[in-house]
Amino acid sequence: MPDDDVRRVRDAGDGAGGDGALGVDDVCGCSWGSPTREAVVRAYGDVQRLMAIAGAAFMPMIFVTVLVWRDLNVKKIAQTKGHVF
User: Fold this and answer.
1) How far is residue 25's CA from residue 38's CA, in Å, rounded to a whole number?
2) Can you list the positions of beta strands (E) in 1-85?
């Protein structure tokens, strides 16, 4: 996945380094609709898609955890006797 994004940005040109890394200033300096900006937007879109999938994958586990969560009544738990500092 990262290799594809680096290739896409490198192919777009516009001063991207050999590794395809662009700083915030480089991206903000690109005009709307330029190939470099479109490549960076596409890369961000790919990552956002993967993060949404990961979040959706965790939701069932979180839902089950909330369902089995126990409400402990601490008033009924016996406290160990001893000195309190």
Assistant:
1) 15
2) none
Tell me the pLDDT tens digit for each residue of 51-67: 999 999 999 999 999 88
Domain that includes residue 29, residue range: 2-68
Burial classification of residue 39, based on how many CB atoms lie within 10 Å of its CB (0-12 exposed, 13-18 middle, 19 or more buried) = buried
Burial of 74 (0-12, 13-18, 19+ CB in 10 A): exposed
CA dihedral 51, 57, 62, 67 (to 10 degrees): 150
Q: Would you place residue 77 in the very low, low, confident or very high pLDDT band (cuts 50, 70, 90)?
A: confident
Q: How many domains does the chain have?
A: 1
For the question of whether the overall pTM of this predicted structure is more than 0.70, the answer is no
CB 42 within 8 A of CB 7: no
